[in-house]
Design a protein that fits this description.
This protein has one domain (2-245): 3-Layer(aba) Sandwich (Rossmann fold). Helices cover 41% and strands 24% of the residues. Strands 1-2-3-5-4-6-7-8-9 form a 9-stranded mixed β-sheet, with helices on both faces. The chain is globular and about 55 Å long. With 246 residues, it is an alpha/beta fold. Helix 2 packs across helix 3 and helix 3 packs across helix 4.
């Protein structure tokens, strides 16, 4: 892990860009974090649109996490922004756009080609980042995961024992294989669903929630489209992490 830049945000949050091999990422830590008072960590998931485009949303989430005493971090997903192009996934995205434009049903073949390769490559990278982040003296467990792609969050919750709670955003397609793995998820969950999400299969999201094996799971559904998540939904997610990571 190599830090490449550092700055202080207006609210005292320390922001550091880093790389792990070819993988860029960002770490945010609150002023209170120190070797003698290490901060619990939240991993910030995001869609494969690139860190530059997602930065305003990510930094807002990081600042809220810091206000609650948490460190937070994110990494660039494979095939996004400055990372090497991924022709197979680019083709799957083109197939998805064409299918939706033509008003046809998005079949399992397209969903699998779009999501499963990303999960297979991204989850080991998240685990490597977690290894590096938890080696820093000012960061400690427990660890939470927050965001999408929801299939990445599901797989990470299954294979990574250091993740002890998760807020998942139900705004992306879910392969049947991930639906099957959801039964192995046992950590507390808080799932956000936009009821009128134009790009999301609502029934698939409900089926996924039903499949989760967690004894504590909450579905927070709101009216509105994909980008219309109300502010109070974020407050509820913050309260969830305050209960489970402190």
């Amino acid at each position: 892990m190599r830090f490449t830049s550092e700055r202080r945000l207006g609210d005292g949050v320390r922001e550091r860009a880093f790389t792990i091999g070819e993988i860029p990422g960002i770490l945010w830590t609150p002023e209170c974090a120190s070797p003698s008072a290490a901060a619990p960590l939240i991993l910030l998931g995001h869609p494969p649109l690139g860190l530059h485009r997602m930065y305003p949303r990510l930094v807002a989430r990081a600042q809220r996490a810091a206000a609650d005493g948490f460190a937070s971090a994110t990494i660039e997903l494979p095939g996004s922004d400055d990372r090497p192009r991924w022709p197979a996934v680019e083709q799957a995205r083109a197939d998805l756009r064409r299918t939706m434009t033509e008003g046809r049903r998005v079949g399992d073949e397209i969903v699998d080609a779009l999501v499963l390769p990303l999960v297979e490559r991204a989850v080991p990278e998240w685990r490597a980042a977690l290894d590096a982040l938890l080696s820093l003296p000012e960061i400690t467990g427990p660890v939470g995961y927050s965001g999408g792609v929801i299939s990445i969050g599901v797989r990470l919750a299954v294979v990574e024992p250091r993740v002890s709670a998760a807020v998942l955003f139900a705004g992306s397609f879910v392969p049947r294989a991930i639906l099957g793995q959801a039964r192995q998820v046992t950590v507390p969950l808080h799932v956000l669903l936009q009821w009128d999400d134009e790009g999301n299969d609502r029934q698939a999201a409900l089926d996924l929630f039903d499949a989760f094996g967690s004894k504590e799971k909450t579905l927070h559904a709101n009216m509105g489209g994909h980008t219309g998540v109300p502010k109070f939904a974020g407050e509820a997610a913050a309260g969830f992490f305050a209960r489970h990571l402190k």
